[in-house]
Amino acid sequence: MDFNECIKFANETPVCYLATVEGDQPRVRALGFWFADRSGFYFQIGAMKDIYKQLQTNPKVEACFWQPGEATGRMMRVAGNIEFVDDPKLKKKVLEDRPFLKDFGLTFDHPGLIIFRIAKGEAYFWTMKTNFEPKKFIKFGD
């Protein structure tokens, strides 16, 4: 497997679970996934959410993408450090892709519209069949 398989899997999975840390307490939540490409895994959040403060304090995250299927399905875990992306073109694109954000008063230049990505890290796939095999990490980013 290679990074292209990771991109495909993520883009086929509209909801993932993202883990952050607050102090010494892990925090995990289901999050609507935006998209992935060769430059990373992209997410959009609101600045008023606790997750934003957590990411500012500690950029280390792990995302879990799960698709149901045979036995317990297939999972991909992605770990790395996030980076915030302040790009007006991407902010316009997220508003096109997620028009409901406008209902919250968000515009491409609103400071509450936050985009971040996992641009560098490692990913691996898991199934019940591969449960006891050594993890085969797929490195991505610089």
Mind explaining what this structure looks like?
A hairpin with a 2-residue loop joins β1 and β2. The chain has a single domain, classed as Electron Transport, Fmn-binding Protein, Chain A (Pnp Oxidase, Chain A, Roll). Strands 1, 2, 3, 4, 5, 6, 7 and 8 form an 8-stranded antiparallel sheet that branches. It is globular, with a radius of gyration of 15 Å. It contains 3 helices and 8 strands, in the order αββββαββαββ. It is α+β, with helices and mostly antiparallel strands and 142 residues long. InterPro entries: Pyridox_Oxase_N (IPR011576), Split_barrel_FMN-bd (IPR012349). This is Pyridoxamine 5'-phosphate oxidase N-terminal domain-containing protein. It holds the Pfam family PNPOx_N. It comes from Methanosarcina barkeri 3.
Number of helices: 3
Indicate the radius of gyration in whole angstroms.
15 Å
Q: CATH homologous superfamily - what is it? A: Electron Transport, Fmn-binding Protein, Chain A
Domains counted in the coordinates: how many? 1
For the residues shown, what is the average pLDDT? 94
Inertia-based shape? globular
Structural class: alpha+beta
Looking at the overall shape, the CATH architecture is Roll
- As residue ranges, the low-confidence spans are none
Q: Could you spell the SSE succession in H and E letters?
A: HEEEEHEEHEE
Largest sheet: 8 strands, antiparallel
Instruction: Give the amount of beta strand, in percent.
Output: 35-45%
Terminal residue distance: 18 Å
* Helix percentage: 10-25%
CATH class: Mainly Beta
**What fold name goes in the CATH topology slot?**
Pnp Oxidase, Chain A
State the total count of DSSP E strands. Answer: 8
Protein name: Pyridoxamine 5'-phosphate oxidase N-terminal domain-containing protein
Pfam family, one: PNPOx_N
